[in-house]
Amino acid sequence: MVQSSTWWQILLWAGGFAFVPYLVATAMGVPFITLERCFYNFIGLGIIVLLNLEVLLPRFYFQQKSLWYLLSAVLAIVLVTTIVYWNGPEWVRPMGPPFDKPPREFTQRFTRVGGYFRMIGRIMPYFMALIGSSMVAIGEFARQKEKETIQLAKEKLETEMKFLKSQINPHFLFNALNNIYTLTLIKSDAAPENLLRLSAMLRYMLYDCKADKVPLEAEVTYLRHYVQMKLLKDSGGMNVEVFLQDSYPSLAIAPLLFIPFVENAFKHSKIEDLDKGWIKIELITVDNEVRLCVQNSIPENGYTKDNVGGIGLDNVRRQLELMYPSQHFLHIEKKSDRFDVQLNIQLT
Question: How far apart are the C-alpha atoms of 330 and 341, rounded to whole Å?
Answer without folding.
Answer: 7
